[in-house]
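User: Could you check the structure of this?
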Amino acid sequence: MAAPGTHFFPGDGTILNSAQPLLIYRAARAADSAAIERVFAAQASPPAWHDGVFPWQYSNPHAREALGVACGSARVIFGGPNGAEIALAAGDVAVVPTGVGHCGMFASSDLVIVGAYPASTRYTTAIRSVAISTVALPAADPVLGTDGPLRTLRPAAYGSATCFLEKTPPYRARRHLAGNSHAGLPPRLSGSGGNRPNPAEAQPD
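Assistant: Sure, the predicted structure tokens are below.
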């Protein structure tokens, strides 16, 4: 497997982002949800949901997130409004650092993304001040394991503040997978196999 593409997004005043790199694995695994789930589960990132990417900028302040494209294609802006638009195809995996913004710009009608978080992830729905830099690295890269780039790449220089205040948006429930081991996973949008969410139905406050 080829080394993943790396993208760094420092804080720019619009979204916190991270000193850690976004990793994009191309054709990492078979374009099949069960195959992607097995890979994530084997690397201590239990699969948590099937869906798409929200059509607004948001980030996860509590954990890194693995996004495996099981079917279809998408274009996602990572790193906030001033970030980079990246095309994702079936079989690709994006490993999104804690705090890095992402926003779905396009989703094919058959898009299905498998989302996963490190097994130790805990989530709170309270308004909170979060120190992104204190979130520990996962035990393993969700694609290549304990020796993968997630644990070996050096972070970029990062001069922005590492704390911010966030209020959890009132999302509808995402289709969480049965039997995942996370405590208090965030509620997300439901979908019929990953169709782009309708912003008229559910928007952040």
